[in-house]
UniProtKB/TrEMBL annotation:
The lineage of its organism: Eukaryota, Metazoa, Ecdysozoa, Arthropoda, Hexapoda. PROSITE patterns: THIOREDOXIN_2 (PS51352). Gene3D superfamilies: Glutaredoxin. Signal peptide: none annotated. Thiol-specific peroxidase that catalyzes the reduction of hydrogen peroxide and organic hydroperoxides to water and alcohols, respectively. It catalyses: a hydroperoxide + [thioredoxin]-dithiol = an alcohol + [thioredoxin]-disulfide + H2O. Keywords: Antioxidant, Disulfide bond, Oxidoreductase, Peroxidase, Redox-active center. Pfam families: 1-cysPrx_C (PF10417), AhpC-TSA (PF00578). The gene is Dmoj\GI26402. GO terms for molecular function: thioredoxin peroxidase activity. This is thioredoxin-dependent peroxiredoxin. It is an enzyme of class 1 (oxidoreductase). One of its GO terms (cellular component) is cytosol. The active site is at C48 (cysteine sulfenic acid (-soh) intermediate). Residues 2-161 form the Thioredoxin domain.
Length: 195
């Protein structure tokens, strides 16, 4: 993945904030916070609303740790609005607590190497962008399988811990778990209790 550990491409596009409220929104306005950027294939589909509902339902939890979650598809902002106006019970998205970027031109998906050129749809990709705008994580699922909100939150917390304390987080790390402090003399890392 060419974008890992590089500055995330700037985004300057219309985002739907809620139902029929939309505005031009940029990625750079989120500097100072972590961002989870969720690409998804299409509105009015099957797996996509389950993911967006799950991330939206926990948006405040992400915000409480200094992270914003933003969705993006190659649909227009009009399609985003129409999907939000249709209730969840009727197959719509309903009201959600995360913004959705409109990418009708497909520029965002192309810039992030997420565009399936054969369909014009975005792949199911997730990017974690840190406070200074660096891409720290990239994952892509085949379109038939949704992502894990729990794992996304764990990754945010692990990157934040590592950034703040200079330690590394082993497999399945959670806040309060043991971390590893790299020994720069070439000896093995040693475990340390997290604060």
């Amino acid at each position: 993945m060419d974008l890992l550990r590089k500055i995330a491409p700037e985004i300057n596009s219309i985002a739907v904030m809620a139902m029929s409220a939309y505005r031009v929104m940029t990625l750079s306005e989120y500097r100072g916070k972590y961002v989870i950027l969720l690409f998804y294939p299409a509105n009015f589909s099957f797996v996509c609303p389950t993911e967006l509902h799950a991330f939206s339902d926990r948006a405040q939890e992400f915000r409480s740790v200094g992270c914003e979650v933003i969705g993006c598809s190659t649909d227009s902002h009009f399609a985003h609005c129409a999907w939000m106006m249709q209730p969840r019970k009727a197959g719509g998205l309903g009201e959600i607590d995360i913004p959705l970027w409109a990418d009708k031109s497909m520029k965002i998906a192309r810039d992030y190497q997420m565009l399936d050129e054969s369909t014009g749809l975005a792949n199911r990709g997730m990017f974690i962008i840190d406070r200074v705008g660096l891409v720290r994580h990239i994952s892509v699922n085949d379109n038939g399988v949704g992502r894990s909100v729990e794992e996304a939150l764990r990754l945010i917390q692990a990157f934040q811990y590592s950034d703040e304390f200079g330690e590394v987080c082993p497999v399945n790390w959670r806040p309060g778990s043991r971390t590893m402090k790299p020994d720069m003399s070439g000896k093995e890392d040693y475990f340390k209790n997290a604060i």
